[in-house]
Automatic annotation (TrEMBL):
Domain NAD(P)-binding span(s) in chain numbering: 4-320
GO molecular function, one term: dTDP-glucose 4,6-dehydratase activity
Coiled-coil regions listed: none
EC numbers, comma separated: 4.2.1.46
Segments traversing the membrane: none
Catalysed reactions listed for this entry: dTDP-alpha-D-glucose = dTDP-4-dehydro-6-deoxy-alpha-D-glucose + H2O
Cofactor field: NAD(+)
Protein name: dTDP-glucose 4,6-dehydratase
Secretion signal, residue range per the UniProt entry: none
Family to which the UniProt record says this protein belongs: Belongs to the NAD(P)-dependent epimerase/dehydratase family. dTDP-glucose dehydratase subfamily.
Protein keywords: Lyase, NAD
NCBIfam families: dTDP_gluc_dehyt
């Protein structure tokens, strides 16, 4: 399959690019290289004859048309987005322009290309989204997000992703574009950009800095190893039913405090401090405005229809992730100089 993957220099997109190439797919990686991008994430496949890179902004419709015409993909996997909730609180404009207008441009470019090719049935537009579009759950283990949960986004980030999901569904219903959608829970793993919770905790711990926990640390997230997400995405683009959405999650709910304590325990074992535990560095800080209490995915549809299962437990995945950061200082050190990294964002309202 020839895949046009947007956002392939980011955290999840690069995992999809690496896995797709390992499985013999051709990949065109389309990425604007924003502050969150890192071409090192795909350095291992950049020389492959299966790989091509286009530095392009999805806000630029004419450039997208040129890329569709030049590469003639079998499927699009659309991951490019502004992705950090805290940044969406400080500057929502970029989220509207990239996540909504950019997705609209992708849909229109894909539609023109698909119509021009004679509307091939096998073509797919796979939109990659988040569970945050469903809002916040009560703390009841029996209540989880299903594909039928009503949308209730509460941050500028999740609202912009929800809007993009609606556009994708509308392009299917109105124009017949063969789309599939996925909504995934929080990812973690290698190459996670050092502004997100897990890398922040690992790197602050190693630097002897405070480990910031928003509010009282009781917010619950459902964690999935990024390589398992990439595997699920390739399964959906190949076998997912047209017009359908699939929730993807690892069924690994943890409060933020439990997660940070687990990371500290792994670090205590792998890189013991001269004295005490990394948990001594835990510090509670002002909460994020509108902080959703709980996310939890019911992944029944992808499991039953497509036979997907995560390959690692959260314990294995977190241990592998910590080890990866210990082994890859050359990757994360330069990123700490990028704008906003290490600063507290998203508290001014
Ligand atoms: N991180 C998560 O836990 C998570 C969970 C579920 C869904 N998602 C979704 O998965 C996708 C990827 O998330 P991520 O964590 O890898 O994000 P990321 O921020 O690490 O990467 C985003 C990539 O998109 C590129 N990009 C941003 N704006 C662009 C533009 N205007 N034109 C072209 N490229 C642009 C960036 O350069 C970057 O390489 C997003 O759509 C996100 O909403 C993320």
């Amino acid at each position: 399959m020839k895949l046009l993957i947007t956002g392939g220099a980011g955290f999840i997109g690069s995992a999809v690019v690496r896995l797709a190439i390992a499985r013999g797919h051709q990949v065109v990686n389309l990425d604007a290289l924003t502050y969150a991008a890192c071409l090192e994430n795909v350095a291992g496949v950049a020389e492959s004859p299966l790989y091509a890179f286009e530095q392009t902004n999805i806000r630029d419709r004419a450039a997208l048309d040129r890329i569709f015409a030049a590469h003639r993909p079998d499927a699009v996997m659309h991951l490019a987005a502004e992705s950090h909730v805290d940044r969406s609180i400080d500057g929502p404009g970029a989220f509207i322009e990239t996540n909504i207008t950019g997705t609209y441009n992708m849909l229109e470019s894909a539609r023109d290309f698909w119509v021009g090719e004679g509307r091939p049935e096998a073509f797919r537009f796979h939109h990659i989204s988040t569970d945050e579009v469903f809002g916040s759950l009560p703390n009841d283990p029996l209540v989880k997000f299903t594909e039928d949960t009503a949308y209730d986004p509460r941050s500028p980030y999740s609202a912009s992703k929800a809007a993009s999901d609606h556009l994708v569904r509308a392009w299917h219903e109105t124009y017949g574009l063969p789309v599939v959608l996925t909504n995934c829970s929080n990812n973690y793993g290698p190459y996670h950009f050092p502004e997100k919770l897990i890398p922040v905790i690992i790197l602050n711990a190693l630097a002897g800095k405070p480990l910031p926990i928003y509010g009282d640390g009781s917010n619950i997230r459902d964690w999935l190893f990024v390589e398992d997400h990439a595997d699920a995405l390739l399964l959906v683009v190949e076998k997912g039913r047209v017009g359908r959405s699939y929730n993807i999650g690892g069924e690994n709910e943890r409060t933020n405090l439990e997660l940070v304590q687990t990371l500290c325990a792994i670090l205590d074992e792998k890189r013991p401090k001269a004295q005490g535990s990394y948990t001594d560095q835990i510090t509670f800080v002002a909460d994020r405005p509108g902080h959703d209490a709980r996310y939890a995915i019911a992944p029944g549809r992808i499991r039953e229809e497509l036979g997907w299962r995560p390959s690692v437990t959260v314990e294995e995945g977190l241990a592998r992730t910590v080890q990866w950061y210990l082994d890859n200082e050359n990757w994360w050190k330069p990123l700490q100089g990028r704008k906003g990294i290490g600063e507290r964002l998203g508290v001014k309202t």
